[in-house]
Amino acid sequence: MPIIRRARSTFQRFAESEASGGLVLMASAAVGMAVANSALAGDYVELLHTKVAGLDLLHWINDGLMALFFLLVGLEIKREILAGELDSWPRRALPFIAAVGGMIAPALIFFAINWQTPDTWRGWAIPTATDIAFALGVLSLFGSRIPNSLKVFLTSLAIMDDLGAILIIAVFYASDLSTLALGLAALLTVALFALNWFGVMRLAPYLLLGVLLWVSTLFSGIHATLAGVVLAMTIPLGSTTAEGRHNGAGSPLHHLEDALGPWVAFLVLPVFGFANAGVSLAGMSLDTFLAPLSLGIAAGLFFGKQIGIMASVFITSRTGLAQLPAGASRRDIYGVALLCGIGFTMSLFIGLLAFADAEHEAMTKLAVLAGSLLSAFAGAVILLTAGQPARPASAPTR
Questions:
Q1: Which has the closest alpha carbon to 235: 213, 266, 265?
Q2: Residue 183, domain member (yes or no)
Q3: Is residue 2 part of a domain?
Q4: Half-sphere exposure (Cβ direction) of 179: Cα atoms closer than 13 Å
Q5: Over the stretch 74-91, which tens digit does the pLDDT of each residue have?
Q6: Among 378, 293, 322, which Cα is nearest to 101's?
Q7: Domain contains 215
């Protein structure tokens, strides 16, 4: 039927557009937020805390499904390191140094505001985090206006930021680390790199060891999504030439990246957005927001992130330590620095580890929500007014 064909064609064009994943994520998050502040709030909370094989459904989403997201972005980063925008040390150095600066400055701002309230010091790490899923979701809304190098810069910066957050959690907040599970995870990591070293090109052995690595990481006490990044770094790029693919020497990395892409964009991220954006605003007031803890978190996310990242970019580019993303202006980079202030789920997670009482928890939620929304809005405005649609950037042959 013509109507069905037109509907199918419209859906296909939407699914293939660069902004589609971001739009679906934002819509899912908006629905989650609305439900959490409606008469269905109780059912929403009950659903997320439903036990499945001994773990909450929310736990499965954040540590299970999101491991696939981190696997995908890890594959993208490795591809760019070997054959793309991060193929030189100056280009690789910039996101790493920017991530470090983007974690130090928010912590300093937090301490400056909370210096006279020692009972809130445990929350210093809350504004240091970046929610990579939502930051990339907002950036994807701009489609071809954004050069590929800028997307790679944000992805690699956010990955390093999340690895830093995982390290902070393990060192400062974790109290029940399992040395046995950590040891097993280390052995599995060595085995994965050994497969790569000996030139194993089949995906099956990597995926099998990857699942075992995820299980051991889950029981180790550190964030299980780390397993996705480790697995991604071991998947071989293989041949990226047309001749190589014709001779059967294809790219395992590209095959897995292509297979994961649609599932992550239209299943993993929407479920993640719906489950994690449901912050209840019940009982919150202006006094809650004006407390030192709230101000420290919100200011750290909005001001600290942009100051730390832009200062790092300015210093490293002027001294020659790092190279700016190709085709990206400083205004583009400033827009990305603002998006890194979207702490959201990672900041909320650290907040839950830092404070167990209801009062501090309410302050944390309100501050993270305010700082993240302000960062997202400001970053979007800057990127929207940054300039003309970007020229297509070179990419490795698939």
A1: 213
A2: yes
A3: no
A4: 0
A5: 999 899 888 888 888 888
A6: 322
A7: yes
Q: How many domains does the chain have?
A: 1
Got the DSSP string for 232-257? HHHS-----SHHHHHTT---HHHHHH
Domain that holds residue 44: 21-384
Token output for 302? 């909005």
CA angle 128-214-66, nearest 5°?
A: 50
Q: Which helix (H) or strand (E) holds 20?
A: helix 20-36
Q: Are 350 and 171 in contact (CB under 8 A)?
A: no
Contact 398, 364 (CB under 8 A): no
Count of CA atoms in the C-beta half-sphere (13 A) of 48: 21
3-state secondary structure of 339: helix
Q: Which is higher by pLDDT, 388 or 228?
A: 228
Give the Cα separation of 223 and 163 in Å (integer): 9
CATH, residue 362: 1.20.1530.10
Angle between helices 358-384 and 292-299 (to 10 degrees): 30
What is the β-pairing status of strands 51-52 and 55-56?
antiparallel
The full length of the chain comes to: 398
**Whole-angstrom Cα distance, residue 247 to residue 249?**
6
142: nearest Cα among 340, 393, 381:
381
Instruction: Name the maximum alpha-carbon separation found in the chain.
Output: 70
Place of tokens 């995908």: 72
Confidence of residue 8 (pLDDT cuts 50, 70, 90): low
Q: What is the pTM of this model?
A: 0.81
Classify residue 6: in a domain, yes or no. no
What beta strand segments (E) does the chain contain? Answer: 51-52, 55-56
Main-chain dihedrals φ then ψ at residue 180, nearest 5 degrees: -65, -50
Tokens at residue 303, please?
A: 């001001």
pLDDT 10s digits, 232-278 = 999 999 865 554 444 445 789 999 999 999 999 899 999 999 998 88
Question: For 136-186, what is each residue's pLDDT tens digit?
Answer: 999 988 887 888 899 999 999 998 898 888 888 877 876 678 999 999 999
Q: How far apart are CA 48 and CA 80, in angstroms?
A: 36
User: What is the distance between the alpha carbons of residues 259 and 137, in angstroms, rounded to a whole number?
Assistant: 19
CA distance 243 to 237: 15
